[in-house]
Amino acid sequence: MLDLKLPTHRRGFLGSVAATAAALGLGELVPRSLAGQDYTAQAGGDASFSAWLNSIKGKHRQVYDAVEPNDGFSLIWAHVFLLTGAPAYGVPESDLGAVVVLRHAAIPLAFNDAMWAKYKLGEFFKINDKSTNAPAERNVFANLKAGDMPLPEAALEKLVARGVIFGVCNMAMTVYSGIFAQKMGLQADAVKQDWNANRLPGITVIPSGVLAVNGAQSKGCSYCYAG
Predict the structure, then answer these.
(1) Among 24, 66, 121, 187, which is 20 to 30 Å from 91 by CA?
(2) What CATH code is carried by the domain that includes residue 173?
């Protein structure tokens, strides 16, 4: 079994960020009156990020800020928002816009089973497989087995099919892939490319999670911390 013997991922992440990247400055939120408008990337801007923001639709919008795996509660709460919002507001589900931002230690939710097995993501991020009571070697938040989550309807691929928008933090992917590469004797770029190529369908890489939370709110999403 791969023995990474790494420090707590929060301390390691922050230390690596300090060593590899400057802090990102965020401006004030765009007024809510602009929430329905499309964004066009300025010269030198990130067109793919603008496209991600413009994919957020619906009259009632909410962004779930997932910082830790937290037993998949970011997914569960997105499901509950869709489940209860439609009858409560008296609108079709298509009028509800749910966004899940996977940042910091929540990024493994974005990757397929092969990545979980190859890099021992369950072991590192302290995520157990309830069927074995051992560190998960598969993504236990997608393509669920019995007992994985209390609400099977909240499986990641089911939420994607219902129109939930997902983003995974590029900054976190960069830092964590560097940590794994160093401990495994690999090239950081190769590990990150591996992760990027093995994202689950419907997961978009965004420049950073904190930027995505900011951008989603500027598009009219209310904020929900998802642990």
Answers:
(1) 66
(2) 3.40.1260.10
In a domain, 155, yes or no: yes
**What value, to the nearest 5°, has the Cα angle with vertex 134 and ends 132 and 135?**
130
Q: Are 59 and 99 in contact (CB under 8 A)?
A: no
User: How many domains does the chain divide into?
Assistant: 1
d(CA 176, CA 170): 10
In sequence order, the β-bridge partners of residue 183 are none
Give the pLDDT of the chain (227 residues) as one tens digit per residue: 444 544 455 555 555 544 444 333 333 333 334 345 565 656 567 999 999 999 999 999 999 999 999 999 999 999 999 999 999 999 999 999 999 999 999 999 999 999 999 999 999 999 999 999 999 999 999 999 999 999 999 999 999 999 999 999 999 999 999 999 999 999 999 999 999 999 999 999 999 999 999 999 999 999 999 99
For residue 12, how many other CB atoms are within 10 A of its CB?
15
Collapsing DSSP to helix, strand or coil, 61 comes out as strand
